[in-house]
Amino acid sequence: MKTLHFKTDVNCSSCIATVSPELEFKDKIEDWSIDITNPDNILTITTDYTEEEIKEIFEKVGHKADPV
Question: Whole-prediction pTM value?
Fold first, then answer.
């Protein structure tokens, strides 16, 4: 697994609740967190997914994730 970082538009606990179900139960995701205190709302994720696949997961629930 590799650790990836993304700039996101997830900026509150309600937004985290929106993306959480899509990240919690995926076999290819070991760990993830979003730092909403960072101005870029950085997602740090340890996964076997590609950057493009992570972007697609976020787009599916109406959010953006851009690789840093």
Answer: 0.92
